[in-house]
Description:
Two copies of one chain form a homodimer.
Chain A: H1 11-14, E1 25-26, E2 46-51, E3 70-71, E4 77-80, E5 83-88, E6 93-99, E7 103-109, E8 113-121, E9 133-142, E10 145-152, E11 159-167, E12 173-178, E13 199-202, E14 205-213, E15 218-226, H2 230-240, H3 246-261, E16 264-267, H4 271-283, E17 289-290, E18 297-299, E19 305-307, E20 314-315, E21 317-318, H5 319-322, H6 326-333, H7 335-351, E22 360-361, H8 375-384, H9 392-402, H10 411-417, H11 428-449, H12 452-462, E23 469-470, E24 475-476, H13 515-521, H14 525-537, E25 556-557, E26 560-561, H15 580-594, H16 610-620, E27 622-623, E28 631-634, E29 641-645, E30 651-657, E31 665-671, E32 674-675, E33 680-682, H17 683-687, E34 690-697
Parallel strand pairs in A: 30-34
Antiparallel strand pairs in A: 1-3, 2-8, 4-5, 5-6, 6-7, 7-15, 8-14, 9-10, 9-13, 10-11, 11-15, 12-14, 16-29, 17-20, 18-19, 21-22, 23-24, 25-26, 27-28, 28-33, 29-30, 31-32, 31-34
Amino acid sequence: MFNEDGTYNSETYEYCAGYQYRDSTIIGFSHTNLSGTGHSDLGDFLVMPTTGKLVLDPLKTIEDNKGFYSTFSHDKESASPGYYKVKLDSYDVTAELTSSERVGFHQYTFPKSNEAHIILDMVYNVYHHDNKNVWTFIRVENDSLVTGYRQTKGWARTKKVFFAMKFSKPFKTYGHKKYNKETYDGFYRRFNQSENFPEIAGKDIRMYFNFDTDENEKIKIKFALSSVSTSGALKNLEAEIPHWDFDKTKNETKDKWNKELAKIEVKTLTENDKKTFYSALYHTMLSPVLYEDVDGQYRGLDQNIHTSEGFTNYTVFSLWDTYRALHPLFNIIQPERNNDMIKSMLAHHDESVHNMLPIWSHYANENWCMIGYHATSVIADAMAKNIGNFDYKRALQASENTANVRYFDGLGDYIDYNYVPDDKSHSSVSKTLELAYNDWCIAQIAKKVGNAEKEQEFLNRSEYYNNVYDEKSGYMRPKLADGTFRKNFDPLDTHGQGFIEGNAWNYGLYVPHQLDKMIQMMGGKERFIQHLDSLFTMELDDKFIEKHEDITRDGIMGNYVQGNEPGHHIPYLYNWTGKPCKTQERVRLIMDTMYGSTVDGLCGNDDAGQMSAWYVFSSLGFYPVTPGLSEYALGSPLVEEAIIHLENGKTLTITAKNQSKENVYVQRVLLNGKIIEGSTLQHQDIMNGGEIVFEMTNKPKM
Amino acid sequence: MFNEDGTYNSETYEYCAGYQYRDSTIIGFSHTNLSGTGHSDLGDFLVMPTTGKLVLDPLKTIEDNKGFYSTFSHDKESASPGYYKVKLDSYDVTAELTSSERVGFHQYTFPKSNEAHIILDMVYNVYHHDNKNVWTFIRVENDSLVTGYRQTKGWARTKKVFFAMKFSKPFKTYGHKKYNKETYDGFYRRFNQSENFPEIAGKDIRMYFNFDTDENEKIKIKFALSSVSTSGALKNLEAEIPHWDFDKTKNETKDKWNKELAKIEVKTLTENDKKTFYSALYHTMLSPVLYEDVDGQYRGLDQNIHTSEGFTNYTVFSLWDTYRALHPLFNIIQPERNNDMIKSMLAHHDESVHNMLPIWSHYANENWCMIGYHATSVIADAMAKNIGNFDYKRALQASENTANVRYFDGLGDYIDYNYVPDDKSHSSVSKTLELAYNDWCIAQIAKKVGNAEKEQEFLNRSEYYNNVYDEKSGYMRPKLADGTFRKNFDPLDTHGQGFIEGNAWNYGLYVPHQLDKMIQMMGGKERFIQHLDSLFTMELDDKFIEKHEDITRDGIMGNYVQGNEPGHHIPYLYNWTGKPCKTQERVRLIMDTMYGSTVDGLCGNDDAGQMSAWYVFSSLGFYPVTPGLSEYALGSPLVEEAIIHLENGKTLTITAKNQSKENVYVQRVLLNGKIIEGSTLQHQDIMNGGEIVFEMTNKPKM
């Protein structure tokens, strides 16, 4: 993803989650992290155990000595859902980490030492390109409990995270160092604040806690988070992990993960495929994240404290990515959670001074990343599939409000011109296409509510994609405010051509709500097949390919990009041309070549689970090309068998008969023994349970 | 008052309250201010009406043009309790201000203009020596409501004030400017944030709101505060001033003030004396200040939100000043409020990570200003006088906890050495004397609770003042850790001689709890009379007198200092020498020469009401020399008559028979017709109501 000003900062992604497999050093374990999002942030409260002479700088000291980082090797490292273990070689300390919903649980096994330390680094931030710290407040409540908060101004502009940190063993001494150069410290100067002084505040602070340890002595830390207050964090700590049994929490967490992951049981041709599938499924559950205390209190977008009445509040909605397949996947395997997420989005709207649904909801902030208002898609999709019990009228009103905030990112112009003029707004075509789709979603919501007037109003707006189609070139093309298409236009270039993170060749196919019309407009099915074939097979000049973490070279097939989102529906579009076999071929090829079970298993960042959700759907043999419709495009399953345990108690079994690496084509699909005509699967057929059989073959049927 | 490092910063006081009478310009009206405290802070949310071309800089623009300040003159200015009015000549705007408890009410009468502005300056701080701003967050909720908060790091280290600002008329446009140079603004950069964008955050921000106004059109603003949240501020706004009737609020506020001020009705010899008296009485009610929302929620010292159960929460406890006479005065005229204040102090203790009662409680912060733990005096005094219904045992525990925080300002050494060694801690004698008095207060608390063991423990500590008395020199004198008195010692010097804001001559007389013993120790009554006489009459070399706002030259009489607190009890000490007539003479002289009804009516800053409380007591003819004892030293009343309306429904009438400027001596004092023997008045005799008659004469009796 690009910066707003069009530049690309290569640091943005690399340490998005705070970890790169190629690293040989660890500087600690922080408590808030994103998984493969389009920008980097968080990393609150870095904890690091060390031994020997106390060092408070992570990389190197001012005397140029080694910082508090440790070397490590992957052969003394293991990771599984809810559990991580690594040997910190520099200190002969074994670190183990697990967690409950709101509490991180650390277990450090020390050598014998009278200089054992736990460092709490509150200077550290993920993506530290700018000093994000605004304020830090810490209280040492007693000899084994520390509370506090940090406010930062990163991607989330006004972000506060509160904590309570409880040690299993009293520290013998403690202290801190301030790294900011503020001169004024008022009458606090009368104290020696740096050692054993229990109340600390400032901008950039690192704390240390000193211990004597016996050989193999374990020091454990429970580290609770809250968006509300330190008393909220303490409540969370006491409620979730009232004991010191690390293995108990580790096992409970493992059980929770297994319960969720076992919702889809798959048989695959290879062990690798199984690993890839469950890695993907795991990735789909890393965000959105829970954002409320055990008592339901949470910090709202207005920075006031709210209580979630009748729902569980979530944040981290990377909606430009996740509306495509992640939320639709939730509608199958976690509909209750998706219902909570939609209610969280409605609460976000109510707390928004703009009266807007979230674009990218981020720790009680709107970070405005990417384009469109795709919360409307998530809502429309849930309504189409009868998911949840949220208030439909309220959802329509929130969607309508969102769609009329004129100062939002070209929206006023879109309303006035019926397209986004390229001379008024960057990424004008992408915006026009996505807003048109979003408006179709609002029309679907209005229809469900029974508001025919609003339905028609937004159906009209949903046709605006027509206004950026240039019949002459055959592409979606940037149009100026004067109604003419922009002259300087390269449909292959991904920069400054009216598209964001894509070009006219691929992003230009983004009319998910009127695919037949789009294909017709673009010259009919035959021409469209040619376009798709060329897209997948053309030799793309390297100059059009940027090397960055968002999309790897392996994530590009011809001019088709799997490593980023705008084209995720494209492999399925052959279904609309009468050539579903080409969809079947492409999706199997993508799954085979662009996903894997090793550390480079994804061909781009995961974008908060969307990359993985694509894989989970495609593995099962279908994909939600048009969220907001209660149907799926059929593809070609990768699994031999999948059993989906639905929350309604029913079970759907998907079987791929004659499954093999070569048999990528589907001869017939039978739903409970009855042949499915066409290439569409209904959501209700999934939710009713039963059996879907794909008859696989190595010969394309059509 | 001095900075902690001993230096003195002349800017500290001048604009403590944000106003100097000699000024000819106004830059606006802010919503939090202190009244004559020993350091400066606050000044949140400066509001200023202007007309003409918008100017957002207060003093001058970068083009060197005039800033948004206005000239004004005192003849177009008036002020009375709860109401202020001034003509802002630069803009032809009349500003009127009133308030309820938590809501400021502005009324600006504009000329006809299509360029009328209201500026909300959130850069401004009182005592802006260091940029105090940490973070500012603002939401324009609609065309006439703005909410937000500011966090600052001044005297209060982690201070947050939230607001809700409601306009009587919708603004036509609005905008802001950021004055900090932060580069990162995330994806907010896609908006034109500077104009009509409703969500703003950053460090240093000034906002403006534009209006068209007719001739004499009034624009009103209700500006509500909260320590909790913007929703708290909104609640306060709606609860306290639900209407737009400025005069109604003004009159209600006037009535509230009159109700409080009428608790003491005085007849005086001159109109000036009456003005001075009521100005003083008014000053005693400016702080401590209410610190909770209408629903009882407030921000605690731990930065968590608490609810005041069974009390009203207060802040701004400048206790080194106010325990002397201000809280004792409350025990007579506002005992319920003092009860709330003590409960606030106990809550402060419970929220303190140090387990300490407040030293100087300041907007959910402890600012640690000055020495001793005088909350114990306020508690002991209330208990001695049977004020309030707070928990005595809890009060003892809190006092005891406070008295054992070893890292607090020499306290560990005081406990170990039985005095504060001068080579270990600055102001060692002052600290020893005050801690000894405070420990006597704790002994009184323990006695009331019936804890004989604690009573004895703290009675023992209360004798520690003996350990810094140097028999040879006859002065309290700095003693070193090795037990010897410091060699380099000048009893007149106020700097580095073991005293803070005083010298051995005056501050050395600070043993309020054992005055007879002290006088005995210092050579007996005759010698002590000589000492006092010299103190009041000696020619003090100018080198010992610093010119600053804390004490004016007029606030010094010989070597006696009325302009600061440590000697406030001294004029009354003649009573302990058998020469009460000298007390009578001195206090009348001080009242006559050091207090007045003009703008320079105080001979030093008011120290949160203590300077004025001394005057109120002394005017009535008695003074609480030893808070913690339920008795007062008799002086010489200034009034001809005073009627005190007590909260218990009773009335006390004080009459000065034959009162005149010359008749400063008291012949006899009769309580309900019965002569009072000695120079002491019992608190119970006041609370019982009735009549006290002072028979005045121009001849000293003894």
